[in-house]
Amino acid sequence: MIETKNNRIKKAYKITMLFSLYLSQGLPFGYQATALPVYLRQNGISLTLIGFSTILAAPWFLKVLWAPAVDTFWNRKTGRRRSWIIPLQILLFISILSASFTSATGMTFLVINIFIMNLVSATQDIAVDGLAVDILSENDLGYGNAAQVVGYKSGMIISGGLLVWLSQFFAWKVLFTVMAVISVIPLILITFYNEADSVREYVKRITMPDLLTILKKSFLKSSFRWLIFFVAVYKFGEIMIDIMYKPFLIDSGIAPSNIGLWVGTYGMAASIAGSAAGGVLASRLSVYRSLLTACILRLFPLIYISVLTFITPESYHVIISTLLEHFFGGLLTTALFAFMMFNVDKSIGATHYTLLAAVEVIGKTPGALFSGFLTEMTGYSVCFIAGTVISCAVIFILPFYNKSLSREQI
Fold it and tell me: How many CA atoms are closer than 13 Å to the CA of 336, on its beta-carbon side?
């Protein structure tokens, strides 16, 4: 079917709107992770309290608990997702702007505002994910999820990298104001977006018992259980390597300053490029084939990094491995998110997707926790090879998912 000019404009608007929404959600987390420790230390806060400040990001890990409310409570006139996104975006703007007055009101006020920013952004993330599920066709899932990943990473770079760098020239009050202005852009786009143009008959009011029934039916499907299993373990091996990669470089004699430049800067740029490429891949192929392809491509940088443990890596080895690992890691992340969005039940899209996203985050934890122990016991080579083998093994979960799905559709 030939796409009309009007449809192309509508698609571009949707993707731009989603990008800006996800970017604004990345602002608080990027500030929390990178800029806040710098600001606190500049103001004489103890390292212990700086460590405890990470609890301010708790809403991002707990949001699955209130995701059902986002699916069940909304105003029909405003729209199922706009009912949440518009007021939450306004609250985000207010909380960021109010944080700019921290110098006059004290550190406690800043901490409270950071927590509110994270709570608002985490809740909005549920609604925006639900909006993406509602308005993206299968062919657009790749582009939509590229907007998600690239937008969120861009927000983190702006608030956690660019603004920290600019802090040497401007007061933090000015930087908070810049963040607040950025948060207005998606508010304008979502305000003028007609949600009714994209949603269909599946968008109807459901009760909490209805939602729980749909969730129960999902878990009774073999394909969904295979999906959950894959999402939980797909990066288990990769995270083992990623966590131990920087200590490996230090032990190999690479200067910390170079690691910061190559991994932190070049790597992030490669990750964003990979995420964008993953969006194109998922939109050109089926979401299943794009995920399978991304899983296979992801193995090449992991094999390359494993080989480096048997030699003394030179600077070009590190740069190449960093670019490859981050690029194909970003490619896989976008492909997976598109695959997750394809598999959710649209009637409870926000809850379903948030549940899968929580599984994805939690699934990385064991690999991260035990990577150091395994490395100390066996060395970098065994850890990296084990991570590569695990990354290869998880690919074979996908055919089981596909076979189960085919049986259920008969």
Answer: 27
Q: Could you tell me how many residues make up the chain?
A: 410
pLDDT at residue number 104: 55
Burial 159-187 (b: 16+ CB within 10 A, else e): bbbebbeebeeeebeebbbbbbebbbbbb
Measured at the CA of 291, the angle between CA 335 and CA 384, to 5 degrees, comes to 95
pLDDT band for 394, please (50, 70, 90 cuts): very high
Question: In which band, very low, low, confident or very high, does the pLDDT at 141 lie, cut at 50, 70 and 90?
Answer: confident
Burial of 95 (0-12, 13-18, 19+ CB in 10 A): buried
Question: What letter does residue 363 receive in the DSSP assignment?
Answer: H
**pLDDT tier at 201, thresholds 50, 70, 90:** very low
pLDDT in tens, 237-251: 998 898 888 888 888
* Superfamily the domain 5-203 falls into: MFS general substrate transporter like domains (1.20.1250.20)
CB 344 within 8 A of CB 129: no
Reference 133, options 75, 69, 198; nearest CA is: 198
Angle between helix 315-343 and helix 267-284 axes, rounded to 10 deg: 40
Q: What is the mean pLDDT of the chain?
A: 85
Which two structure tokens, joined as six digits, stand for 54? 């990470």
CA dihedral for 195, 196, 197, 200, sign (positive or negative): positive
Fold of 211-409: Growth Hormone; Chain: A; (1.20.1250)
Rounded to two decimals, the pTM is 0.84
Beta strands in 191-324 (DSSP E): none
Mean pLDDT, residues 99-108: 68
Domain ranges of the chain: 5-203, 211-409
Is residue 200 exposed (0-12), middle (13-18) or buried (19+ Cβ within 10 Å)?
exposed
H helices present in 31-140, as ranges? 36-42, 47-52, 58-62, 67-72, 82-99, 102-105, 107-135
